[in-house]
């Protein structure tokens, strides 16, 4: 389900599934598999659409089975019932496929125009916005702990993040064949 909007390359989404977009594929599915299902049964169409889309997520995990040399950090802007908070979570495996898991109601993963892997995840209290970055090989444990502390305190800046992490979009773009602008070389890679 790799489609492109002007500012993002969508990897996978279940945010705005529209049964009308899936109707012809459902009819074809019934015909190819010689099933007697009614192609106009909205409940069966919806069920098939959701299940098929979940299969596509599994496919995307296979596509993005890319092992990196360092852990990945998820930086979150979390929507809660009592307001927004920042937070982080580590993906110690360092494998990009492990970014494609969510415990929210609806999620969309995409690479933005800056080459960052991001997700918007809706749930009953609001929407979470995630930024996925991998630690640079040169990042020290002290730098990593300092960044985690700043994130926990809600005081991390973009410069703090880019100083010791790098974007994931380059590896993802190589899989799907889309173009993203080159990274700025000066500050992001010099430190």
Write a structural description:
This protein has 191 residues and is α+β, with helices and mostly antiparallel strands. Helix content is 36%, strand content 27%. It contains 6 helices and 8 strands, in the order E-E-H-H-E-E-E-E-E-H-H-E-H-H. Strands 1, 2, 3, 4, 5, 6, 7 and 8 form an 8-stranded antiparallel sheet that branches. A hairpin with a 4-residue loop joins strand 5 and strand 6. The longest helix has 22 residues. The two termini are 36 Å apart. The relative contact order is 0.16. The N terminus and C terminus are likely disordered.
Summarize the structure.
The protein is of the alpha+beta class.
Summarize the helix and strand pattern as letters.
EEHHEEEEEHHEHH
Low-confidence stretches: 1-5, 186-191
Beta-strand percentage? 25-35%
Biggest pleated sheet: 8 strands, antiparallel
Distance between the termini: 36 Å
If you compute it from the alpha carbons, what radius of gyration comes out, rounded to the nearest whole angstrom? 19 Å
């Amino acid at each position: 389900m790799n489609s492109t909007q002007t500012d993002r390359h969508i990897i996978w989404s279940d945010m705005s599934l529209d049964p009308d977009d899936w109707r012809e594929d459902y009819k074809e599915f019934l015909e190819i598999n010689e099933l007697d299902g009614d192609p106009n049964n909205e409940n069966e169409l919806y069920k098939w659409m959701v299940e098929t889309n979940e299969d596509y997520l599994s496919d995307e995990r296979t596509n993005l089975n890319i092992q990196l040399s360092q852990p990945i950090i998820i930086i979150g802007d979390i929507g809660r019932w009592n307001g927004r908070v920042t937070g982080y979570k580590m993906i110690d495996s360092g494998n990009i496929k492990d970014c494609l898991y969510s415990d929210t109601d609806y999620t969309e993963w995409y690479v933005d125009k800056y080459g960052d892997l991001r997700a918007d995840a809706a749930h009953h209290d609001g929407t979470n916005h995630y930024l996925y970055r991998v630690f640079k090989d040169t990042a020290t444990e002290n730098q990593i702990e300092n960044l985690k502390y700043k994130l926990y305190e809600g005081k991390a800046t973009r410069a703090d993040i880019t100083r010791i992490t790098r974007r994931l979009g380059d590896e993802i773009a190589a899989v799907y064949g889309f173009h993203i602008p080159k990274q700025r070389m000066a500050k992001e890679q010099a430190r």
